[in-house]
Amino acid sequence: MRANVKLFVVAGLLVGLALALLVSPFASSSPDGLEKVAAEEGFDGTSREHDTADSPLADYGVEGVDDERVGTGLAGVIGVLLTFGIGLGLFAAVRALRPGDRSPASSASSA
Amino acid sequence: MHVPDGFFNAATSVGAGVFTAGTLGVSLRKAANDLTDRLTPMAGLVSAFVFALQMLNFPVASGTSGHLLGGALAAVLVGPWTACLCIAVVLLVQGLLFADGGLTAYGLNVLLIGIVPAFVGWGVFRTVRSVAPATKATVVAASGIAAFVSVPVAAAVFAVLYGIGGAVDLSFGTVLGAMVGVHVLVGIGEALITAAVISAVVGVRPDLVYGAQDLTPELELRPSTTTGAA
Predict the structure, then answer these.
(1) How many separate domains does chain B show?
(2) What is the pLDDT of residues B1-18, one digit of tens each?
(3) Do B98 and A59 touch (CB under 8 A)?
(4) pTM value?
(5) Are A75 and B99 in contact (CB under 8 A)?
(6) Residue A42 with chain B: CB contacts under 8 Å
(7) Which structural domain, as residue segments, surrounds residue B187?
(8) Which of A32, A47, A48 sits opposite B57 (nearest CB)?
(9) CA-based nearest distance A1→chain B, Å
(10) Could you give the percent of chain B with pLDDT greater than 70?
(11) pLDDT for the residue A18
(12) A16 lies in a domain?
């Protein structure tokens, strides 16, 4: 059963990576709902440049990759893998805090 | 829906940040109870998958796009508390590395994209399921409805917050109407994507869907409890 969960998660991750690599370069580049409303209602002018605007991955591109679609796809792959790694690390740590479940041999106590 | 730096005054950004920090603190404790051996890797997957789906902007009207928020989707898959943490991770990666979502607006963004959609979505999902037969089809339908509702509600919360502490003095009704109007359309996309993902997962592994656990009564082997009492 647990192996099957791993299989499912790996399969899901591959789908996510495929979406990021192959589909995201063709996503709409129009302003999103909030950006559009901000422009139309005249409150977009107060936005400041992002603190990490110099990041090599800023705005879902990869510094040094000139082809925008390739850059977007690669940035997506990097983002999906990083998010997965950070998420998995966080949730494994949170799971370790689970009360009464620290060692499998003495998991009888329940709160 | 990612709020950049500078849209809100400092007090509102800090206030939202404090509220979000508190909610995430509670989420950590609640998620600890939910995170089983199965749900833990699923929560990592949900975070990564929402990151991918948020890159897929779809056109909603002339010159306007929308993308999945993902709070409702995550809530159905891993429960609302863990969902808040999933979206917080997504926004952290986006804000720190991809220059998306202002760092001073991190609390606002977790609130608008994570907490509000997750709990509104979960509430709608549970309500629809409570009046519908317990089938895979109704789980899919309930998730779609939940996702649809979650987006304009998040847009309305934005308008309320903007009325409280927006950088520009605008009529609350104008911002509310504009935000909800466009986000009803975004919500349709949110509903379709959410229903498609839930349909795919519930089709192959309903036991991995937090909101559909009742469909697969668990016959779990547990270590015999010879020591300790309940």
Answers:
(1) 1
(2) 999 999 999 999 999 999
(3) yes
(4) 0.92
(5) no
(6) 168, 170
(7) 10-211
(8) A32
(9) 9
(10) 94
(11) 98
(12) yes
